[in-house]
Design goal:
- The complex is a heterodimer of chains A (1135) and B (134).
- Chain A is α+β, with helices and mostly antiparallel strands.
- In chain A, strands 5, 6, 7, 8, 10 and 12 form a 6-stranded antiparallel β-sheet that branches.
- The C terminus of chain B is likely disordered.
- The longest helix of chain B is centred in the middle third of the chain and has 18 residues.
- Chain B starts with a strand and ends in a 7-residue tail after the last helix.
- Chain B is built from 4 helices and 5 strands, in the order E-E-H-E-E-E-H-H-H.
- Classes of the chains: A alpha+beta (1135), B alpha+beta (134).
- Chains A and B meet through helix 1, helix 2, helix 3, helix 5 and helix 7 of A and strand 2, helix 1, strand 3, helix 2 and helix 3 of B.
Chain lengths: 1135, 134
């Protein structure tokens, strides 16, 4: 590795030469080296921070004098710069030297220039204003014939460069990709990587050249290009699947030692390169069997080769394991990877143990049995003296939490939480505990207590979602009303007890939660009266340590309780106290309370009991104010104009004054500036008109904005999160089962482990309670199947499995995995199977029970019993068990599908549409999609064909909500019944919210076959920006006006190919490919316009010089021009 | 992704720092103090990786000198751990013995003619051409 450095340095012979000669007299050199040296030595010798500060301030002031003195030579400047860098590195501001660093880079000889560049790259950051001054120097040096200068310029560009100046150097750097020296090529690739990081759409057109870099004969250039590929593949892996072969070949060569020996590190060939490649492969092979198959060999080879006992090989192994578990699984590889993890976890070296835990955490979701294998190690790590190891272990446990082990795991987490002081850790852990508690809480008491702990420890640093979610959970409840009431009652009781404690301080957030719950649900109490609760809240209100925000929560709670309370002494006292409060907010609340208190009937109707979940109908249009507005208008008031419209008008007025011909301005509102009476009336008239049109626009705009928050059904986000919370709505008390399990475990333990030490026993207990529920159903998960069964359900089937495996089960075995199984078994016997018949009978009953309980989705079970003649084949259809599936003539159904699709297309021929493309299929159904580019939206049509001879029930197609898209369902999307061999279409209109280049819209189709089992099929469709671009038909005059009112513009020159050398043909291409509307062609200039749906206009001004087309975009949206420019470049290059 | 690269002595004085993401100069000092504190509090039996806020610190000790690298969570800790050693080996190869020199001044003065001392990037990018620098 170090040899590469040598190469790098020897590639700069000029530099050293310069140094040798430029060093000049020995005396000068000595003084030069000694000054930084003595500064460093001086600082090291100092003992206190204060002394250091004094020395450096002294140094800085002398440096300041030197750099600004006119007599300072460049050579001295270079020396100063080095000391400045050192001072700034120690944290002292040296900003006075920044400009000199830029000057040095500009003016110096090679060595001085180098120091200048170095200083610039260390001093400045991307958005620093001085950086613009460097651009010229960089451009000059990039064109230099001296390789060293080119190198320096490329180096600085790859570290720091202003985003908006990229077009100035881009062509120069692109040229360097063909340079004969590999170091230049490498640095050029790194510079382009930097551009890709800061402005990805500016380098999109040179992707082809990256491919060339990947195949470069120099390893360094190839390695540099991997950075770009890793990044691009992370963003969109589907676009680079074709490169998988190349990456595999490269990795094969690296692993096989084909690289020059220079790249070896402790005789391991290019370890970091291997890691990079493994990462890329992992991304490419994810969920893609065909691509994954290409890499099995090389992964196997990597695992085999990396057996050398050295840290760096462990790093490679770790990456291998990660990749093996990321891609489409292959059992042999998984086995080997699991072995590797075992080696890590069991290693005495602490760093390896950490890696092992990290790998386990990743792998555990796919294969929980691995956790069982290593459970004792995990238990040990849980009590490890190193908190980092502990935390990693908790992370692992968090991933394997289920309804059975949740209490133990959360307890461990809380223990850790009480010890840690770092805010970040607390926030993180508190969030996890809250999540687990909501998901798996075994009973009310536990849930409330855990949340109490969360609130008191997490306090005011935790994420605000946690208390919000908790309150929502309480308010919305689950299916069972009495259950909800119990939970609420328990919460109220526990808070009252907490508040009774003296001298305990709770975090403000916790107090807020308490006050809300008490305000809403105190009515559930039978012992304490609302008045008593009010008294407690009042006590809190008078407490000085309570923040004013919390006080408003408290007073709101009091307000809610007041109508229920009979005596109201406290309330009156409170009103009296706070109507004179200095806090205006509190005062307002107190006055509200006062007035409501005077009218009890109104108060009761306003604050009904337990209605927090009901939605309020809000009149968003404020129609009740119409009369008031009409009255105002009739009295001559000016119509209301929203703020932004007023501003726009002001702006356009200014622009009219500045740019439009004099005569024109007369007819427009430019007159208002004159202040003559006539002018005023004219002006107001005009502005009144425009306000009206503006009002229309803004009305629609406003509605859009409002839609997100308020709708017919009320507050919308609440609704959304309600569905999201449904998973949290599961904590059904399963105490009895839990207890049984525990009992069974303890019983087993008592009988078995008498001989073992007490400590050992404790660990075993812990293990059995921690790893309970991690059965052997893991094979299902390995196949990438999402487990959709509810928890209760899953457990049941697992018990059966444990039982069915009983024959091979050694009862006296002391291994803990079997222990937990034994526990299950006992439990199972206790609960369900008292009638142990003979073997055959048992299988029989088990199987029939299985069919009853609809646990058919459990694949291994199905497989296990598939040889049983009792199961009817039709039940298994489409359960990825092809043997049972009645073979269909797929060709016929496909033909039918296409005919049906075309019939649908006929209906919509008025719009342009794309060809139908199949997005997913299985034996039963196939889904194809196509786009219809309607004028006002993009209409996506998915046509679903039922290929099977069976009737499908409740077929439903759903689109996942995507970040950038607003998808609206057209009517008729859920079909109750889908007849055999029929095709149905689902239509969705899609709108985008932010411009982008490419997005993915995915969804799934679910259906029921017969009555029993349901299946689900996922698909995704790529959408490009162009799907949302429509021509904007406006006149040249409008174009001119709009042009001036848009602030965001982007300019770029594009080379035209010969075929489109003339302007009209070039514009024609743009019109056809990008759907731009050509407004006018004047000489060598052209005006085009388009809009991004729903209504973001973008204007394009083109001008032709020789074979260069100058594009100039303007839009009201800041990002749209960039994206359009990229599309234009693509089109112009492509044709 | 590497966020920063630090060389710190046992007294907690920064000897060399390089940030790959802009950090305000005042915040740097604060960050460095905290980073050093958390490194110094660790014993030999504890692992060389620290979770610090939302990123990870990977450190290695050479006599009185700590080298600490801050990375985000996409990074392979062991690879960075070895990368530190690689860096030290490179220094060692070029500028006498690094391990025997427990204070940086000597390294600095040794590096002086090339100023490579302050530029992990150029000499370093060659050395680490296989490692993500950003």
């Amino acid at each position: 590795m170090s040899d590469i450095v040598e190469k790098t340095l020897t590639a700069l012979p000029g530099l050293f030469l310069q140094n040798q000669l430029g060093g000049g007299p020995a005396a000068a050199k000595a003084s030069f080296s000694s000054r930084l040296g003595s500064l460093v030595r001086g600082i090291t010798a100092l003992t206190s921070k204060h002394e250091e500060e004094k020395l450096i301030q002294q140094e800085l002031s002398s440096l300041k004098a030197t750099v600004s003195a006119p007599t300072t030579t460049l050579k001295m400047m270079k020396e100063c710069m080095v000391r400045l860098i050192y001072c700034e590195m120690l944290g002292y501001d040296a900003s006075f030297g920044y400009i000199h660093a830029i000057k040095l880079a500009q003016q110096g000889n090679l060595l001085e220039k180098r120091v200048g560049y170095l200083a610039v790259s260390l001093f400045l950051h991307e958005s620093h204003e001085l950086l613009l001054l460097l651009v010229n120097t960089v451009v000059k040096d990039l064109q230099s014939t001296n390789l060293v200068e080119v190198c320096m310029a490329l180096t600085v560009v790859s570290q720091i460069f202003p985003r908006e100046m990229i077009p100035a150097v881009l062509p120069l750097i692109e040229d360097k990709l063909q340079h004969s020296k590999e170091i230049i090529r490498r640095k050029a690739v790194l510079a382009l990587y930097k551009f890709h990081l800061i402005a990805p759409n500016q380098v999109q057109h040179i992707h082809i050249k990256f491919r060339k870099a990947l195949c470069d004969r120099d390893v360094g250039v190839m390695a540099a290009s991997l950075h770009i590929y890793l990044r691009m593949i992370k963003e969109n892996s589907s676009g680079y699947k074709d490169l998988t072969g190349s990456f595999v070949t490269i990795l094969k060569q690296v692993v096989g030692g084909k690289l020059p020996v220079d790249f070896n590190y402790h005789s391991v060939p290019a370890p970091w390169l291997q890691i990079q490649l493994l990462r890329i492969l992992g991304l490419l092979g994810k969920d893609d069997q065909r691509t994954s198959e290409l890499m099995y060999d090389v992964l196997d080879e990597s695992l085999r080769r990396a057996e050398l006992n050295h840290n760096v090989t462990y790093a490679i192994l770790f990456e291998c394991v990660h990749t093996v578990y990321s891609i489409y699984p292959k059992s042999e590889l998984l086995e080997k990877a699991a072995k590797c993890i075992g080696k890590f976890v069991l290693s005495p070296k602490i760093n390896l143990k950490y890696l092992g835990l990290k790998a386990l955490t990743y792998v555990i979701q796919q294969d929980p049995t691995l956790a069982l294998q290593h459970q004792m190690t995990i238990i040990e790590c849980l009590d490890h003296p190193d908190p980092i190891i502990k935390r990693e272990t908790l992370e692992l446990l968090y991933r394997i939490t289920n309804a059975q082990n949740v209490t133990v795991i959360v307890q461990k987490m809380l223990e850790y939480l009480h010890q840690s002081k770092e805010e970040y850790v607390i926030v993180n852990l508190v969030g996890k505990i809250a999540e687990l508690a909501e998901k798996y809480a075994p009973d009310n008491a536990w849930f409330i207590q855990t949340m109490n702990a969360v609130f008191s420890v997490g306090g005011d640093v935790m994420h605000p979602d946690i208390p919000n979610n908790f309150l929502r959970l309480l308010a919305e409840g689950f299916d069972d009303e009495t259950e909800d009431q119990q939970l609420r009652l328990y919460a109220v009781q526990s808070y009252l007890t907490l508040l009774d404690m003296e001298n305990v301080f709770y975090p403000q957030r916790f107090l807020q939660v308490m006050s809300w719950v008490l305000g809403e649900y105190s009515y559930l109490l039978d012992k304490e009266t609302p008045a008593e609760v009010i008294a407690k809240l009042y006590k809190l209100l008078m407490n000085d340590s309570v923040s004013s925000e919390t006080k408003t929560w408290l007073i709101a709670a009091v307000t809610k309780l007041t109508p229920q309370a009979h005596s109201s002494d406290t309330v009156e006292r409170l009103i009296h106290e706070f109507t004179i409060s200095l806090d205006t907010c509190m005062r307002q609340h107190a006055f509200e309370l006062k007035h409501l208190h005077e009218n009890v009937e109104l108060m009761k109707s306003l604050l009904p009991v337990d209605r927090s979940c009901e939605d309020l109908a809000v009149d968003a249009s404020l129609s009740f104010l119409d009369g008031f507005v009409a009255e105002g208008l009739s009295q001559g008031a000016a119509p209301y104009k929203p703020h932004h419209q007023r501003q726009e008008e002001k702006l356009s007025q200014e622009k009219v004054l500045n740019f439009e011909p004099y005569g024109l301005s007369f007819s427009s509102s430019g007159f208002t500036g004159r202040q003559s009476p006539a002018g005023i009336s004219l002006g107001s008239d005009i502005s009144g008109n425009s306000a009206e049109t503006g009002l229309k626009e803004t009305n629609s705009l406003k509605l859009e904005g409002i839609k997100k928050l308020w709708g017919k059904e009320g507050y919308l986000p609440k609704k959304e999160s309600k569905t999201g919370n449904e998973s949290g709505a599961l904590p059904i008390p399963q105490e009895s089962i839990m207890e049984n399990v525990d009992q069974a475990i303890t019983k087993k333990d008592q009988s078995q482990v008498l001989t073992q030490s007490k400590e050992e026993k404790e660990k075993q207990l812990l293990a059995s309670s921690l790893f309970v529920g991690l059965g052997s159903e893991s094979t299902v998960n390995l196949l990438g199947k999402a487990d959709t069964v509810s928890h209760k359900f899953r457990r049941k089937s697992k018990i059966k499995e444990a039982k069915s495996g009983e024959t091979s089960h050694n009862m006296t075995c002391s291994s803990f995995s079997s222990l937990s199984n034994v526990a299950y078994e006992d439990d199972y016997y206790l609960n369900a199977l008292h009638d142990r018949g003979d073997k055959e009978l048992k299988t029989f009953s088990l199987n029939s029970e299985l069919l009853d309980s609809e646990s058919l989705t459990e694949l291994p079970l199905v497989e296990k019993f598939s040889n049983c003649s009792l199961s009817t084949p039709s039940l298994f259809a489409d359960n990825s068990m092809e043997i049972f599936h009645p073979p269909q003539s797929i060709a016929a159904s496909v033909a039918k599908e296409s005919s049906l699709a075309s019939s649908f297309l006929e209906e919509t021929t008025e719009y342009i549409h794309s060809n139908a493309m199949e997005v997913c299929n299985n034996e039963t159904i196939s889904v194809s999609s196509y786009k219809i580019w309607k004028d006002d939206c993009l209409l996506m049509v998915w046509s679903v064909t039922n290929k099977s001879g069976l009737e499908l029930k409740s077929a439903n197609l759903e689109i996942f909500p995507a970040e950038n898209f607003k998808v609206t369902e057209q009517p008729g999307c859920c079909l109750p019944i889908m007849e055999a061999e029929s095709t149905k279409s689902f239509q969705y209109s899609v709108q985008i919210e932010e411009p982008f280049t490419e997005g993915i819209l995915s969804g799934f189709i679910s259906y029921h076959m017969m009555d029993t089992h349901s299946a689900q099929l996922e698909f995704s469709v790529n959408l490009s920006l162009l799907d949302f671009i429509r021509p904007l038909k406006i006149s040249s005059e409008d174009f001119g006006k709009l042009w001036l009112s848009f602030a965001n513009d982007v300019k770029q020159n594009v080379k035209m190919s010969e075929s489109q050398a003339a302007l009209p043909s070039a514009l024609k291409t743009l019109q056809q490919k990008l759907r731009l509307h050509i407004i006018e062609i004047i000489g060598n200039e052209g005006l085009l316009a388009c809009q991004l749906l729903p209504s973001i206009p973008c204007l394009l001004h083109c001008r032709v010089y020789a074979d260069v087309l100058a594009l100039w975009f303007r839009s009201s949206c800041s990002t749209l021009p960039d994206y359009l420019l990229y599309q234009c470049q693509k089109v112009m290059e492509g044709s | 992704m590497i966020k920063f690269f630090l060389m710190v002595n046992k007294q907690g004085q920064t000897r060399l720092s390089k940030y790959y993401e802009h950090v305000d100069i005042n915040k740097r000092t604060l960050l460095e103090t905290e980073v050093i504190k958390s490194c110094l509090s660790r014993s030999n039996e504890q692992c060389s990786f620290i979770e610090y806020k939302d990123f990870k610190l990977i450190y290695r000790q050479y006599a009185a000198l700590f080298i600490v690298v801050g990375v985000n969570d996409t990074e392979n800790e062991m690879a960075i751990y070895e990368f530190i050693h690689n860096f030290v080996e490179v220094l060692d190869e070029y500028f006498s013995r690094v391990e025997s020199v427990d204070e940086l001044p000597k390294i600095c003065s040794a590096l002086e003619p090339q100023q490579a001392c302050f530029s992990p990037d150029s000499s370093f990018k060659g050395a680490a051409s296989t490692t993500p620098i950003y």
